[in-house]
Amino acid sequence: MGSLRIATFNIHRGLGTDDVLDLDRTAAAIRATGADVVALQELDRNLDRTGRIDQPALLAARVGLPIEFRPTLRLRDGEYGIGLLAEGLASVDWVRLPRVGREEPRGVIVGRLPDLWVCATHLSTRPEARRVQLRALARLVADLDGHVTVLGDLNAGRRELRPLRRKGLAPGPRI
User: What integer pLDDT is reported at residue 108 of this predicted model?
Assistant: First the structure.
């Protein structure tokens, strides 16, 4: 397997820390990583709150990588979800994660590159739901043959990642 740079980015629908919606700035930050594969969370598609822009398509064009977008919520006026920017995905699947109560729907984009499975997700902020989702994600990862990386906003501390660690995944660097 050759060298591959990966990144994950919760774009918060394009809002910066200054509360300004600026997808050009978001795209520039993504490009600056030099990543070949990028998991994106909190993308809007055609929602009023973000000017009815197709954020996945716009970011793919500005970053220069094709995107696989999967909505986790379908709203009256559009969709909200996660994406995976990557060149050369041989296959892409969508796997729903379990919900606890009225928890927001969650899922995993599972993409296959020549020598790597890439699992992109955005887990719950609620601890009880996140625990269930991490166990489901660990079972999913265990069924994949070969090298696997999990990217996304896991909303979890390192200790909470035990289900993934038991399946052979190592936590990323501390930042």
Answer: 98
Distance set, CA 91 to CA 88, 111, 130 (Å): 9, 6, 26
Q: Phi then psi for 15, rounded to 5 degrees? A: -80, 130
**Cβ(120)–Cβ(108) under 8 Å?**
yes
Cβ atoms of 138 and 98 within 8 Å: the answer is: no
Low-confidence ranges of the chain (pLDDT < 70): 1, 175
Task: In whole angstroms, give the CA distance from residue 51 to residue 57.
Answer: 14
Report the pLDDT value the prediction gives residue 58, as an integer from 0 to 100: 98
Q: List, in order, residues 6 or more apart from 114 with CB less than 8 Å away.
A: 88, 90
